[in-house]
Design a protein that fits this description.
GDSL; 5% strand; mainly alpha; hydrolase activity, acting on ester bonds; 4 strands; SGNH_hydro_sf; single chain; GDSL esterase/lipase
Length: 174
């Protein structure tokens, strides 16, 4: 199970209207390893891909590309390029608008949806106990949103405890 932003997104950005036509949807992204754009913010693989390969498991299915429990049984990636740690309410209260309508909280909700698809409580517990969870880099886009809205460095610095709190709350609750 993988969470994060563009440094971990294995293709969700191709399935989200706000990012579908972004740079990772066209060459040269994906040319070297996959021979086609995959939605990864890379010409090749991401760290999550190397980890999956080292463990001998398939590349995780992007959540927005899956439809059934079978699509998610061997791994799922919730990361979205441009995702923020903080939710839209935080930004809106400061007169800012995120570039992508996905936050870490959305990814946690998607994770809970996948767990429901995977069957009984016993089955979900077994799957989680034998799974690797990767919480990739997230929070940088929060600052990019701030600076795009002409926020000062001091104002952006005040985001730090909020971003850390958002990550902490999702990691400890999920």
């Amino acid at each position: 199970f993988s969470f994060g932003d563009s440094l971990t997104d294995t293709g969700n950005s191709l399935h989200l209207a706000a990012t579908r036509a972004g740079p990772s949807s066209r060459p040269p992204y994906g040319e070297t390893f996959f021979r086609r754009p995959t939605g990864r913010a890379s010409d090749g693989r991401l760290v999550v891909d190397f980890i999956a390969e080292a463990l001998g498991v398939p590349h995780p299915t992007p959540y927005l590309a899956g439809k059934s429990a079978e699509d998610f049984r061997r791994g799922v990636n919730f990361a979205v390029g441009g995702a923020t740690a903080l939710g839209p309410d935080f930004f809106e209260s400061r007169g800012l608008k995120p570039f992508v309508p996905v936050s870490f909280t959305n990814q946690a909700t998607w994770f809970k949806n996948v767990l429901q698809l995977l069957g009984s409580v016993h089955n979900r517990t077994r799957i989680m106990a034998t799974s690797l969870f990767i919480v990739g880099e997230i929070g940088v886009n929060d600052y990019l949103v701030a600076f795009a809205g002409n926020t000062t460095v001091e104002e952006a610095r005040a985001f730090v405890p909020h971003i850390v709190g958002a990550v902490r709350s999702v990691v400890t609750v999920s």
